[in-house]
Specification:
mainly alpha, signal
Length: 64
Amino acid sequence: MRTARFAAAVGAAALVLLGVTACDGAGGGGSAAPDGGAAATSELNGIQSTLDGIGSDMAGDGSP
C-alpha cells in the first residue's frame, strides 16, 4: 500500500515535470497563446488537486 502511494506521487510529479517542460518549449518567443493559458491553468489545477489528495492520504495513514 505504501509503495503504491509512493508510485502515485512519483507519477504525479513526473506529469508536472513533463507539463513544465512542455510549457517551456511551446512558447517559442516567450509568449503564450491566449487560449492556451487557461487550458494549462486548468490542467495544473487538476494536477495540484491530485497531489493534495495524495498528500492527504499519506498524512492520514499513520505511517512515518
